Input
Amino acid sequence: MERAEKLVLIHDLQDRLKALICAAVQVKNIGDQISGWEPIMGRCHQNVDRWVSKHPDDRATRGWIRTAYMALPGFIRLMSHSVVETPAGTLLDVTLPVRECHHQFIRHPGSDAEFLELVADNGCPWIDIPLDEPDLGLAELADLVRQMENYTTWGIHEEFDF
Output
């Protein structure tokens, strides 16, 4: 995909994801709770593919997690992420440990092929969604505060090992 095509696709994706932000769901983190399972941090797409190869009834679900603590003012940052969907429809994060805050997950609004092409080689590991208005709704502001409380400065330092 050429750069101009990719920019058009990303701009379109911003609009599609912005419309889906309210449909985000919490996903249970279980990456460190499964005996014999050793996920590789920072490799969620590969972890999910490996999981699905060992659990063929489950399926890979591609999407985006909201990371309020990394967003620039006036933006919502969504990081590319993959989770597992069980036959019962439950979404499970087989990469992140239980202690990690539970992010809001938005299913990718396109095909898996489109998603994987966008994020291949970290071409688009995240996407920033501009907010139309500087004033957040009360419910969204409360959610952002909860997310920030769940992810303290100490947690950032420990995770990135400064």
Notes: Residues 3-156 form one domain. The longest helix spans residues 3-20. The first strand starts at residue 25 and ends at 26.
